[in-house]
Amino acid sequence: MILFFSFLMILAILSTKLSSKLGLPLLIGYILIGVIAGSDVLNLFYFDNAELTKKITDILLIFIIFDGGFNVSRKAFKSVAGPALTLATLGVALTAGVLGLLIHLIFKFDLVYSFIISSIISSTDAAAVFMITKANPIKSNLATTLNVESAANDPMAIILTITFIQIATGYFSSPILAVAKLLWQFVGGVCVGFVCYKISCFMFNKLNSDSRGNYSVLLLGCILFAYGVSDLVGANGIISVFFMGYWLGNSQFPAKKSATSFLDSVSIIFNMALFILLGLLSFPHRFVNIWKDALIIVAIMMFVARPVALFISTIPFKYTPKEKIFLMWGGIKGAVPIVLATYPLAAGIDGDGFIFDTIFFAVFFSCLIQGTTLGPLSKLFKLTEKRKVDSSHTIELHSLKSSEIDMFEINVEEESININKKISELNFDKDVLITSIVRDDQIIFPKGNTRLKENDILFILAHSSRINEITKSINEIEKK
User: Fold this and answer.
1) What are the residues whose beta carbons fall under 8 Å from the beta carbon of 175, sequence distance 6 or more?
2) Same domain, 164 and 285
3) CATH number, domain at 463?
4) Are 98 and 308 in contact (CB under 8 A)?
5) Is residue 393 assigned to a domain?
6) What does the alpha-carbon distance between residue 6 and residue 10 come to, in Å, rounded to a whole number?
7) Residue 361: burial class (beta carbons within 10 Å; 0-12, 13-18, 19+)
8) Which of 241, 329, 356, 404 has the greatest CB tally within 10 Å of its CB?
9) Are residues 448 and 312 in the same domain?
């Protein structure tokens, strides 16, 4: 068994190279590994326990959602907060509403049953969107809108799905109670997330440990603590960990660099485990019975529900028609819908597996079609921009104490008036130190007579409060 899982992990990591070359979202490769190793193909590992899958994926999802919030910068969030959060809340609700009504009218399903299906598939996938926006030179405002929306819209889809499942199982006595519960889950989730963020910062500052590993373990404990407190008070734990991640990711605390690296590793492992597990749970031979219905549902989602929701949600915001079409096509589905598809299965609502199989097929189709064409669409619509050069080297300041000083990475832009200037001519004061330069993938030791070149990557040690000032100084443009 250990050998089997080690083989899956190694194969999953190797598949990242192939996915990158083909422009496919990583989750397709991970899911395929699970499907191939599962019951219907090689039958190396038989697995059909939906309830156990739900329990495992719920835990994995806590850390994946936290990581999504942790990696949303305050600057990026503020620049697109209006449209992104509108899409993440109103947009998800409208998508679920339009899709649910059309499923009800076309397939004659029970209305609540139809809304369960539409709610499950109403959110977009952060992992898939992040990969595509990072790999393609998409305009910053559009890429950030999609990134923030995809990171923030999962809680709404989760709340809607749970609400309709509870209505279907008789948990709620009235729609008013359902709405009240829904509002409290949102408000309570944000409040718990903020309180736990403050507690986490306090604990990080008071730990005062010489071991970086202790800070990583503390981070895991704080994440689980936020989710547990939310569950205790009846708030939404996913919302709590997302906003706690956002506030914590935009704060300074001891050993943040090492904790961030650890969190990246945890996120990769948990994403991999989640998709492989969901692949193992699938039975492709059952797709023969549902593929027509699934295609109709995914077509309605792509060409009716998502466009209607997006165009209504973006009315107050300034986007061109081409930009709106691009954002519409960026509604790629992924991990959360497949995880949510196990909820009705575990609750006994999806006895024949129709919901799970349909959602699984629809997600895979969305990733395959939208995931591979979003990059080319940005180029076709001329919604691209020049991207800064990425460094193959990383230099970080690992600090176990609170400090106002940190290491920053600054790219020298081609319009800068400082190109060909010597470092000694930059007139930095003694509190600013260029520790190294990356040029043509080589690390250069900077000296006073070293001249700056276009696309140089500077690693600068300075006070955090001065980084914007230093960046502007290095990339100052000559006034005409």
Assistant:
1) none
2) yes
3) 3.30.70.1450
4) yes
5) no
6) 6
7) buried
8) 241
9) no
Distance from C-alpha of 292 to C-alpha of 103, rounded to nearest angstrom: 13
In a domain, 39, yes or no: yes
> DSSP 3-state assignment of 169?
coil
Query: Residue 403: how many CB atoms within 10 A of its CB?
Result: 13
Q: How far apart are CA 131 and CA 150, in angstroms?
A: 12
Whether residues 369 and 451 share a domain: the answer is no
Same domain? For 363 and 467 the reply is no
- CA–CA gap between residue 174 and residue 186 (Å, rounded): 19
Q: List strand residue ranges (DSSP E) for 397-469, in order.
A: 405-411, 433-439, 442-444, 457-463
pTM, entire model: 0.78
Provide the residue-wise pLDDT of the chain in tens; the chain has 480 residues: 678 778 777 877 777 766 666 656 666 777 788 888 877 777 777 777 777 877 887 888 888 888 878 887 787 778 888 998 899 889 999 999 999 999 999 999 999 999 999 999 998 877 678 767 777 788 888 888 888 888 778 888 888 898 889 888 877 666 677 677 778 888 898 999 999 999 999 998 888 877 778 888 999 999 999 999 999 998 888 889 988 999 998 888 888 878 888 888 888 888 788 878 878 877 888 888 888 999 999 999 999 999 999 999 999 998 999 999 999 999 888 778 888 888 898 888 888 889 988 998 888 888 888 888 888 899 899 998 776 666 677 777 766 666 778 788 888 888 888 888 888 888 788 888 888 998 888 888 888 888 988 888 888 888 877 888 888 888 887 665
Exposure string over 276-300, b if 16+ CB within 10 A, otherwise e: bbbbbbbebebbeebeebbebbbeb
Please report, in angstroms and rounded to a whole number, the separation of the first and last CA atoms in the chain: 68
Q: How far apart are CA 44 and CA 395, in angstroms?
A: 43
CATH of the domain at 220: 1.20.1530.20
For tokens 């799970």, the residue is 356
The domain tally of the chain equals 2
Residue 390 lies in a domain: no
- Picking from 345, 380, 415, the residue at the C-terminal end of a domain is 380
Residues 157, 122 contacting (CB under 8 angstroms)? yes
Return the H-helix or E-strand segment holding 264. Answer: helix 256-281
Q: Does 136 lie in the same domain as 101?
A: yes
Q: Which of 363, 380, 397 is where one domain is finished?
A: 380
Instruction: Give the total residue count for the chain.
Output: 480
207 residue type, one letter = L
For residues 38 and 180, state if they share a domain: yes
Per-residue DSSP letter, 425? G
Indicate the Cα dihedral angle 139, 144, 150, 152, nearest 10°.
Answer: -160
Residue 53: which domain range?
2-380
Residues 330 and 436 in one domain: no
195 and 285 co-located in one domain = yes
